[in-house]
TrEMBL record, chain A:
InterPro entries per the UniProt record, alphabetical: BFD-like_2Fe2S-bd_dom_sf, FAD/NAD-bd_sf, FAD/NAD-binding_dom, Metab_Enz_Cyan_OpOx_G3PDH, Opine_Oxase_asu/HCN_bsu, SoxA_A3
Protein name: FAD-dependent oxidoreductase
Domain FAD/NAD(P)-binding: 5-316
Pfam family, one: SO_alpha_A3
Keywords: Oxidoreductase
CDD domains on file: GlpA-like_Fer2_BFD-like (cd19946)
Organism of provenance: Pseudohalocynthiibacter aestuariivivens
Keyword Metal-binding assigned: no
Superkingdom of source: Bacteria
Domain SoxA A3: 376-453
Automatic annotation (TrEMBL), chain C:
Pfam families: Fer2_4 (PF13510)
Identification of the protein by name: (2Fe-2S)-binding protein
Stored CDD domains: fer2
Record's keyword annotation contains Oxidoreductase: yes
Annotated source species: Pseudohalocynthiibacter aestuariivivens
Entry keywords, A to Z: Oxidoreductase
Length: 467, 366, 102
C-alpha cells in the first residue's frame, strides 16, 4: 500500500490550497479528485476554458487558474478521475480509477469534498429538463453550453450570477422566480453592519442585479406554489405570486435553494455533526483548524460549513498548516505565524454569510413539501410516505429508510437526506439534531463488485475461512 | 394505559409476539428504542431458512421447520390486513459448494439429521450441470449445491413495516424512541424509560435483541448473548438473474442482489471492513460471474444476536415469574412461530409448545 | 420527443467522433463530457427509473444525483462522469422497465 503524509480528497479551492501549502512545507501529498482536471465545481475546467468562456464566467472564475498553476509547480501527486469510496479512521483511503481499485495510507486526511445543492423537492422536479442552477453553470464551464429558454427558480445569490452569465452569453433566462420575500430581506438587515466588512460582495450583488434589470429579464420575489409541468420533459413552470398564478412555457428549469455541506464522507467516518439552524443543514464539527472529532481527519472548505470559494481556499491552507505541525514538519510558533494573516482574511471573508443566510432562506415549499411530492428521487418516495412512516413510529431517518427505501438508491441519500430529517423533525416535534441523519456507509459512490473483488487478492487474507 | 403485556423491543421479534398476543385478545404495550439502536431487523438477510439449522439440535430444526411451514399463512394474513406484499417465496434455496469434498461432508450431516427428523428434511444435491439448468447464470467454479425445498425468502423491510402497521391497527400501543433504563417488579412490572416515564404491566417480555445483555440481569436472566457481525452488500437493481435464494446471495423482489453471510466476533461494532467486503464480493462473483459488472450501491454491518450454542432462548424468569426473555438470531425465519405459537406459551396455555430445550438452563448445566 | 437542443454551445469543437445511443448514431466532440454532449445533441432523457419507469435526465452534472445513468458495456455509468470516446455504445439504463410501463 502506498503511504503518504497527507491524503486530500477533493481538488476544489480547499483541496488545492491545502495541497500547495502542505507540499511547500515538504509533506508528501496525494490529492484525489473525481474530475479530469483540478478546480472543483467552482473552478471547473478553468485550465482549459477558452477566452470566450472566461469572459462570460468572469474574474471570480478565472482566478481559479492561479490556484491550478500553483498546484502544478508544487510536488503533489494529483490523481484525476479518482472516485474515493471508502475512508478509514486510520487514514486508509480506497479509491478507483477507470474501474481499478487502489488503497493509499495517509498519516492524515483532509476532506475537501465541498458542497451539494440543497434538495428542491417541488412538483415536477424529477422531469428531464429540470436541473440544478449549479448544473447549468457546470455545463457552461465544462462544455461551453448555455441553456436556452430557461427559467431560474429559487433563492440565493448564485441565481443572479448564473443569470448574468446567461445574459452575457446572449441567452438571457426567460424569468427569474425567487422564493425569498421582502421580510427575509428585512430580517437580514440586522446583520448588515457586520456584513459591511464584506462590502465587495454586496457591491458585486448590486451590480449583478442591475445587469439583470438592464437586460429586461422578468424577476419575481416571494413566489409560492412552484410547479413544474410536463409529461416526459419540462414544458412549463407555474407559480403563484400575491395570489395570482402565472405559467411560463420553457425548455429548462434551473432550481436553486442554496448549497449545503456534502457530508457523505464525514458521515461515513461517523464524525460528530451538528445542525446549523441558520443554514438549515448538518455540518461536521471542526475546530478552528478544521480538525474533526477524529484526530486523523480534517474537513476544509464548504464541506465543513458553507463559506464560499475564498473562505474554502483559506481553510485548506489552515488545515494543511495544522497537519504539518501535527506531523512535526513545523513548530507551533511557525504554524501560528503563517496562519495568522490567513485567519484574518477568512474572518472578513465570512462576514457577509449571516446576512446571506437570512436574506436567502430555503422556501417553505421545499422544507415542507406537499404529500404527493417525490422527495427521494432514486426510490421515488413521497413526502406523504415519510409522514406516514412517522405515524408508524419512525423517529429517525434510518427507520424511515427501512420502512420506505428512501436513501437506498444510488445517490445514497444525497438529495433526500435533509428533506427526510426536516420532515421527521416537523412530524415528531423534535429538533433536527435529535432526529439525526442517515447512516452513511461505504461505498461512498457505487463501484462494481468486480472492482471490490479484485482488492481481495491484494489485502491480507483475514477472512480466508469464508471462501 | 392498561396492558396485559409490556414488550421491550419493537422490531421483528417484539412485534411478531405483540401481533400474536393481540390475536389472542391480549392488550399489549411495545416500547421501542431509538433511530440509532443496533437493529438486526434492519440489517438482516430476509431468509426463511431451514437448511443447516439445528444439525446438532433436532429440536431447533423442528422449531424452524414449524415456523417455515406457518409462514405462507402468516404472510397472507398480514398482507391481507395491511395491503403490503411481503414477497414471500418458499420454492427452495441453495447452499453452494466450490468443491465436492465439502459438499459430500455436508450431505452426510444432512442425512444424519434427516433420520433424526423421521425423514422430514427434503433436500437434494444438484451437480454443476443440474444446477446450471435451474440457475443459468451460475459460474463454472461452482461444483454443486444442496437444494433444500423448505427454504425461502421474503422482503424483510416490508415485514417490519407491515407488523408495525398491523400491531397498531389491532389496537396495540407502540411507543418509539423510548430506550429503557430500568425494570423492576412490585405488583406489576415497572419499566422506567430514559426520560423518567414509568410504564407498568402484569406480564413482561424482553425481546430487545442485544439490549437484553444489560436489561436481562435486572430480572434474573443470565442472557448470555453476544453480538456477531455480518456484513452485507447490496447492488443496484438488476434484471432478474436468480430463481432461488442461497444462504449467501439472493435477488430481492425489487431487483437488487443482496450478498452477505460473514461471521465476525467484534463486539458492538457494526462497521464494514474492506477485507470482509471484498472477500464477500469475490465469492459472489465466483458464484454468479455476471455480478462483476453490477454496481455495489450500499453495504452495512449488522449485529446478530447469538447465544453460546446459536439457538434461541425462551425463558421465563425464575426469580420474577411473568417476565420472559425471548432472543434469537433468526427473527425472520421464526417470526411466524413467534406470532402463531409463542403467545400460547407466554399465556401459559395448554396449547403451548414445549420450549424447555430452549431455556437458559442448558447453559448452566455445562 | 423534442429533439431540438435546449442548449447553445458558445465554443463548439471541431474534433468529432461517432457514438451510438440506443442504436442511433450521434456525432459528438471527442473527449467532451458525455452528459453535456448528449444534451447538446438534443437528447432529453437518459434512463427510466427502475421503480416506476419514469424518464430521467441529467440533474446535478457533478456526479451526485445518479439521474444521468446510462448503460455502457453492460455497466451502468454516470454520463456526467464519462468522457466521449469514438465508438462508444450507450444504452438507456433500465430501458426495459420503461417500455414495460409505457
Amino acid at each position: 500500500m502506498t503511504e503518504v503524509d497527507l491524503v486530500i480528497v477533493g481538488a476544489g479551492p480547499a483541496g488545492m490550497s491545502a495541497a500547495v501549502t502542505a507540499a511547500e512545507i515538504g509533506l508528501s501529498v496525494l490529492l484525489l479528485d473525481e474530475q479530469p482536471a483540478a478546480g472543483g465545481q467552482i473552478y471547473r475546467n478553468v485550465a482549459k476554458a477558452d477566452e470566450t468562456r472566461g469572459d462570460i464566467l468572469g474574474k471570480d472564475y478565472t482566478y481559479g487558474l492561479e490556484l491550478v498553476t500553483a498546484m502544478r509547480s508544487a510536488s503533489i501527486t494529483h490523481v484525476t478521475d479518482a472516485t474515493v469510496w471508502k475512508i478509514g479512521e486510520d487514514g486508509t483511503v480506497a479509491y478507483s480509477v477507470n474501474g481499478k481499485a487502489s488503497l493509499v495510507q495517509g498519516r492524515k486526511v483532509i476532506l475537501a469534498t465541498g458542497a451539494l445543492e440543497r434538495p428542491v423537492p417541488i412538483p415536477g422536479w424529477t422531469l428531464p429538463g429540470v436541473m440544478t442552477a449549479g448544473a447549468a453553470q457546470i455545463l457552461l464551464k465544462q462544455s461551453g453550453l448555455v441553456a436556452e429558454r430557461a427559467v431560474i427558480c429559487g433563492s440565493g445569490p448564485l441565481i443572479y450570477l448564473i443569470a448574468q452569465q446567461m445574459i452575457r452569453a446572449g441567452k438571457p433566462p426567460l424569468a427569474i422566480i425567487e422564493t425569498q420575500t421582502k421580510s427575509d430581506l428585512l430580517n437580514a438587515m440586522r446583520h448588515l453592519p457586520h456584513a459591511l466588512r464584506g462590502w465587495r460582495y454586496l457591491m458585486k450583488g448590486a451590480k449583478l442585479l442591475s445587469e439583470i434589470k438592464r437586460a429586461g429579464v422578468m424577476r419575481v420575489t416571494g413566489a409560492e406554489n412552484l410547479e413544474i409541468e410536463g409529461d416526459t420533459e419540462v414544458r412549463a413552470i407555474a407559480f403563484t405570486h400575491r395570489g395570482q398564478t402565472t405559467r411560463i412555457q420553457c425548455n429548462l428549469v434551473l432550481l436553486h435553494q442554496g448549497v449545503v455541506p456534502n457530508t457523505q464522507a464525514t458521515r461515513s467516518l461517523r464524525l460528530e455533526h451538528a445542525w446549523s439552524s441558520a443554514q438549515r443543514c448538518f455540518h461536521p464539527i471542526t475546530n478552528e483548524w478544521g480538525l474533526s472529532s477524529l484526530e486523523t481527519v480534517y474537513v476544509a472548505g464548504d464541506g465543513a460549513g458553507i463559506g464560499g470559494a475564498k473562505a474554502a481556499e483559506q481553510a485548506g491552507a489552515i488545515s494543511a498548516l495544522h497537519v504539518a505541525f501535527a506531523l512535526g514538519f513545523i513548530t507551533k510558533a511557525d504554524r501560528d505565524k503563517r496562519a495568522a494573516p490567513i485567519l484574518r482574511l477568512q474572518s472578513a471573508e465570512l462576514a457577509l454569510r449571516p446576512f446571506l443566510d437570512r436574506a436567502y432562506p430555503p422556501s417553505d415549499q421545499v422544507l415542507k413539501p406537499a404529500d404527493d411530492t417525490v422527495i427521494c428521487r432514486c426510490e421515488e418516495v413521497t413526502a406523504g410516505d415519510i409522514r406516514a412512516y412517522a405515524r408508524l413510529g419512525c423517529t429517525g431517518p434510518n427507520q424511515a429508510k427501512a420502512f420506505g427505501r428512501s436513501g437506498m438508491g444510488p445517490c445514497q441519500g444525497r438529495y433526500c437526506g435533509l428533506t427526510v430529517t426536516e420532515l421527521l423533525s416537523q412530524e415528531t416535534g423534535t429538533t433536527p439534531d435529535a432526529v439525526g441523519s442517515y447512516h452513511i456507509r461505504p461505498p461512498l459512490k457505487p463501484i462494481t463488485l468486480g472492482e471490490l473483488a479484485t482488492l481481495e487478492q491484494t489485502l491480507t487474507d483475514e477472512t480466508k475461512g469464508l471462501i | 394505559m392498561e396492558a396485559d403485556y409490556a414488550i421491550i423491543g419493537g422490531s421483528i421479534v417484539g412485534l411478531s409476539i405483540a401481533w400474536g398476543l393481540l390475536k389472542r385478545g391480549r392488550r399489549v404495550l411495545v416500547l421501542d428504542g431509538d433511530d440509532g439502536s443496533f437493529r438486526a431487523s434492519r440489517g438482516n438477510f430476509g431468509l426463511v431458512w431451514v437448511q443447516g439449522k439445528g444439525l446438532k439440535q433436532p429440536a431447533y430444526a423442528r422449531w424452524t421447520q414449524k415456523s417455515a411451514a406457518a409462514w405462507a399463512d402468516f404472510s397472507a394474513e398480514l398482507g391481507e390486513s395491511t395491503g403490503y406484499n411481503l414477497a414471500l417465496q418458499q420454492a427452495g434455496g441453495y447452499d453452494f459448494y466450490f468443491d465436492e469434498e465439502s459438499l459430500e461432508q455436508r450431505v452426510a450431516e444432512f442425512e444424519t439429521l434427516k433420520k433424526e427428523l423421521g425423514g422430514d428434511y427434503p433436500f437434494e444435491v444438484l451437480r454443476h450441470n443440474e444446477l446450471k439448468r435451474e440457475e443459468p447464470n451460475i459460474g463454472p467454479r461452482v461444483a454443486g449445491a444442496i437444494l433444500h425445498h423448505q427454504d425461502g425468502h421474503l422482503n424483510p423491510l416490508r415485514l417490519l413495516k407491515s407488523l408495525a402497521d398491523d400491531v397498531r391497527r389491532m389496537g396495540g400501543t407502540v411507543k418509539c424512541g423510548v430506550p429503557v433504563k430500568r425494570i423492576s417488579k412490585r405488583d406489576l412490572f415497572e419499566i422506567e424509560a430514559e426520560d423518567g416515564t414509568i410504564y407498568a404491566a402484569p406480564k413482561f417480555v424482553l425481546s430487545a435483541g442485544l439490549g437484553a445483555m444489560d436489561l436481562g440481569p435486572q430480572l434474573g436472566f443470565s442472557a448470555p448473548i453476544r453480538p456477531q457481525r455480518g456484513q452485507v452488500l447490496i447492488t443496484e437493481k438488476l434484471p432478474k438473474m436468480m430463481n432461488r435464494p442461497s444462504g449467501i446471495i439472493r435477488q430481492v423482489d425489487e431487483g437488487s442482489v443482496q450478498i452477505g453471510d460473514s461471521k465476525e466476533e467484534v463486539g458492538l461494532d457494526d462497521r464494514v471492513t474492506l477485507e470482509t467486503a471484498s472477500a464477500i464480493a469475490a465469492r459472489a462473483v465466483a458464484v454468479y460471474p455476471d455480478l462483476a459488472k453490477a454496481k455495489l450501491v450500499r453495504s452495512w454491518g449488522a449485529l446478530r444476536i447469538m447465544s453460546p450454542d446459536g439457538f434461541p432462548i425462551y425463558q421465563e424468569s425464575s426469580t420474577t415469574p411473568g417476565a420472559f426473555l425471548v432472543t434469537c438470531h433468526s427473527g425472520i425465519t421464526l417470526a411466524a412461530a413467534h406470532a402463531r405459537y409463542l403467545p400460547a406459551w407466554l399465556d401459559g396455555s395448554d396449547q403451548a409448545p414445549n420450549l424447555e430445550v430452549f431455556s437458559e438452563q442448558r447453559f448452566a448445566i455445562s | 420527443m423534442n429533439n431540438a437542443s435546449p442548449f447553445h454551445n458558445i465554443s463548439p469543437s471541431d474534433d468529432l467522433v461517432t457514438v451510438t445511443f440506443d442504436g442511433i448514431e450521434y456525432i459528438l466532440p471527442d473527449g467532451a463530457n458525455l452528459a453535456a454532449s448528449l444534451l447538446e445533441a438534443g437528447l432529453r432523457y437518459f434512463r427510466n427509473t427502475p421503480v416506476s419507469g419514469a424518464p430521467r435526465g441529467p440533474f446535478c452534472m457533478m456526479g451526485a444525483c445518479y439521474d444521468c445513468l446510462v448503460e455502457i458495456d453492460g455497466e451502468t455509468r454516470q454520463a456526467c462522469m464519462t468522457e466521449v470516446t469514438s465508438g462508444l455504445k450507450i444504452e438507456r439504463a433500465h430501458r426495459d422497465k420503461g417500455l414495460e410501463n409505457d
